[in-house]
From TrEMBL:
Domain of life of the source: Bacteria
Keywords: Bacterial flagellum, Cell projection, Cilium, Flagellum
Residue ranges of domain Flagellar basal-body/hook protein C-terminal in the record: 223-266
Lineage of source species: Bacteria, Bacillati, Bacillota, Bacilli, Bacillales
Domain Flagellar hook protein FlgE/F/G-like D1: 113-173
Flagellar basal body rod protein N-terminal domain segment(s): 7-35
InterPro entries assigned: Flag_bb_rod_N, Flagellar_FlgE/F/G, Flg_bb/hook_C_dom, FlgE/F/G-like, LlgE_F_G-like_D1
Pfam families linked: Flg_bb_rod (PF00460), Flg_bbr_C (PF06429), LlgE_F_G_D1 (PF22692)
Subcellular location: Bacterial flagellum basal body
Name used for this protein in its record: Flagellar hook-basal body protein
Similarity comment: family membership: Belongs to the flagella basal body rod proteins family.
Length: 272
């Protein structure tokens, strides 16, 4: 009976974590360049149930003959293994703001290849983003809306000095202070990218490459546009309702087991 407790309890925990992931997706449905998380579930290892029994022969010494047999397998529950970003191109939205840039993928040489803007986090380490909602700080440097410096193809800061600058389709920044190329990174396997805060990614797989140096990589930079989040709100709401119902089902199973345990402990065998 305790196995049933464990399986139902594991199901509740898994659905609660799934709800957290779905809620995070919904809260970022309007975040430019946000990539929704996809959750994967796995079952705990199955247990093989065997019955160990026997019988005594009706002889003087009554030797015992084993009669063991296999009952079958039992599942011990499910758990949410991980959340992985879903990399696909979001729709574009016109803003008319010169500091807003949308990175648009064309043909990629690898099936899971994806491009990113290159930025520096607060520690100066390289990070990557699809959120082109940029601005210009007080010193005239191009930064993200969270204050991270946007980098060029040589990983140097880009100083425009003003918000009145131009960006060509190939990512060339033309301004009175600087004339350089935006740092566009290419990851052959986007699934190696790990989310951090502020809509940033760090690389934990194959080395990031300069997209302009990778044969067959096609991209364009659209000024005055932003890439929308790729979250589908209707699908997220449907999944949240389904997950909630599954949570309730597991909850009812736990309640049923709890009543059975209460009867076993307090009523079975009671002497009236």
């Amino acid at each position: 009976m305790l196995r049933g407790y464990n399986a139902a309890g594991a199901g509740m925990i898994a659905q609660q974590r799934y709800q957290d992931a779905l809620s995070n997706n919904m809260s970022n449905a309007l975040t430019p360049g946000y990539k929704s998380d996809r959750s994967t579930f796995r079952a705990f290892p199955e247990m093989l149930i065997n019955a160990y029994d026997g019988y005594n022969l009706p002889t003087q010494n009554e030797p015992r003959i084993p009669n063991n047999h296999r009952v079958g397998a039992i599942n011990t529950g499910v758990y949410m293994q991980e959340n992985t970003p879903h990399f696909n191109q979001g729709d574009l939205r016109d803003t008319g703001i010169s500091t807003d840039l949308a990175l648009v993928n064309g043909n990629m040489p690898d099936e899971d290849g994806f491009t990113f803007f290159t930025v520096a986090n607060e520690d100066g380490a390289l990070r990557y983003t699809r959120n082109g909602n940029f601005t210009v700080d007080a010193e005239g440097f191009l930064t993200t809306s969270q204050g991270h410096y946007v980098l060029d193809q040589n990983n140097n800061r880009i100083q425009t000095g003003t918000e009145q600058f131009e960006v060509t389709e190939n990512g060339q920044v033309i301004s009175p202070f600087d004339n350089t190329l935006l740092g566009i990174a290419y990851q052959p396997n986007a699934n190696d990218m790990v989310k951090e805060g502020d809509n940033l990614f760090r690389n934990e797989g194959v080395a990031i490459q300069n997209a302009r140096e990778v044969a067959g990589t096609e991209f364009s930079v659209n000024q005055g546009q932003l890439e929308r989040s790729n979250v589908d709100p209707q699908h997220m709401m449907t999944e949240m309702m389904r997950s909630y119902r599954l949570f309730e089902i597991n909850q009812q199973v736990v309640k049923t087991y709890d009543k059975s345990m209460d009867m076993a402990a307090n009523q079975v065998g009671r002497i009236n």
